[in-house]
Amino acid sequence: MTADSNSDIAWHRVQLRKNRNAVKALEIAHFTGNIAASSDQMQKNIAILKRKIADSERCIAAHERRTKRPVATDLQSLASMSWSSWNARRVGWR
Question: If DSSP codes are grouped into helix, strand and coil, which group holds residue 91?
Answer without folding.
Answer: coil
